[in-house]
Amino acid sequence: MRITRRTLVLGAPLLGVAGCTTVRPDIAALGPYISPQYAAMYAAIDTEPFPVPAVDLSRVDPVFLRQEVAYATQEHPGTIVVDPNQRYAYLVLPRGRALRYGVGVGREEGFNFQGEAIIARKAEWPRWTPTPNMIRREPERYGPYAGGLEGGADNPLGARALYLYRDGRDTLYRLHGTNEPWTIGTTVSSGCVRLLNQDIIDLYRRVPVNTKVVVRPTSSAATS
Prior knowledge:
This protein has a nine-stranded mixed sheet, with helices on one face. Strands 5-9 form a two-stranded parallel ribbon. It has helices at residues 5-8, 15-18, 36-41, 132-137, 139-142, 197-206; strands at residues 67-70, 80-83, 88-93, 97-102, 105-106, 115-124, 160-166, 169-176, 187-189, 193-194, 212-215. By secondary structure, it is α/β, with parallel strands linked by helices. The protein has two domains: 5-57, no CATH class; 67-223, L,D-transpeptidase catalytic domain-like, CATH 2.40.440.10. 15% of the residues lie in helices and 25% in strands. InterPro entries: LD-transpeptidase, LD_TPept_cat_dom, Transpep_catalytic_dom. The active site is at residues 176, 192. It comes from Pseudorhodoplanes sinuspersici.
C-alpha cells in the first residue's frame, strides 16, 4: 500500500487536543511521505521518566494511525469500544464521531476478554507480571519474570496501562502501550490490547477511572 500525503494528513485536527508541538528536526528522517502533522503526533517524547522513541511510521500501516472518524454507536460519549476483528479501539465522541486508535490484539480467540468492563485503575509506566497461564504455556519465556518487571523502556506494557475490571474483579485484561510499534494492527499479544505508546498516552489522559469499556467478540477468521 503506497503511503500518500492525503492518507497521512487525516489526523491533523487532533494535534491541538493532543498537545503536540512543532515538528522536530529529526522528523525529516521518517521519509518523504510522512505529513508534518503525523510526524509531530508520533515524534519522540522527552518529558517522560523513560524515553519514548519516535514511531517509525514506515513500519505502521497508516490506517492504524490515530484519527477522528465517523462512528455510529449506541454507546455514550466517553465509552471505549475495542473491535479486535478490525484492530481498532474507539473513544466515542459526541455527534456520531470517535477517536480511532490502531491496536494489536491476542493471537488466539480463547485468550481474549469480551463484553463490558470498567477502567478501575490507571498506571503510568506500569509494573508487568505475566499471568500464571502465560507462565504455564511458555515457562522458558515468562518464568524468569514471575516476580514481575518494573516499569521502563523495556517493559512490554509500555508507557501507560488501563486496567479492566468487571463486577469488582480484575479481568487481567489491559489496554496498554508497547515497545514494539510494528505489531500494531496484528495479532500478537497474549490477550491484552496494545497501542502505540504515543496513543496510549493520549487515551490515558482523555479517560478517567470508571470509564466504560466494551470489547467486541473476536471471530476466528480475524485471528487467522
